[in-house]
Amino acid sequence: DFYARYLEPGQAVRVSYSGQDMDGRVQTVQPEIKDGTVTVVVALKDPGNALLRNRLRVDAYIVTAQKSDALIADSGPAFNGKGVQDLFVVEGGIARRVPVELGLADGHSVEIRSGAKAGDQLIASDMSRYRDLQSIRISN
Known about the structure:
Helix content is about 0%, strand content about 50%. It is mainly β and about 140 residues long. Strands 5, 6, 7, 8, 9 and 10 form a six-stranded antiparallel β-sheet that branches. Strands 3-2-1-4 form a four-stranded antiparallel β-sheet, with no helix packed on it. The protein is elongated, with a radius of gyration of 19 Å. The protein starts with 11 loop residues before the first strand and ends with a strand. The relative contact order is 0.17.
């Protein structure tokens, strides 16, 4: 229900099931929030897809914002929402803590607004046990 205010008819939707993605659009957002749940009706581009059946549970991702020419990284436990946070960037066998500003995210990828550049290797794993260190030697 937190995101209900960002939902509106016409937004793009990606429905995932069994390793396949299906495109669609939000058709209706029900005005009632019941037990913390918002009901959204989605119109799929291909409603006759052979994978679909009645009462099927799928993952649906509604695009509430998007940007072109954004720097993105694969998401992981090291990324905690939006804003500035310390991440480790690997260079020459050393991982150094750097402040990185994060933006939009979709559960699979996260936008890097500043603090890293294209080609940087960011550690996406949980690095909380190294939170007091400024750098770590990385060995293969």
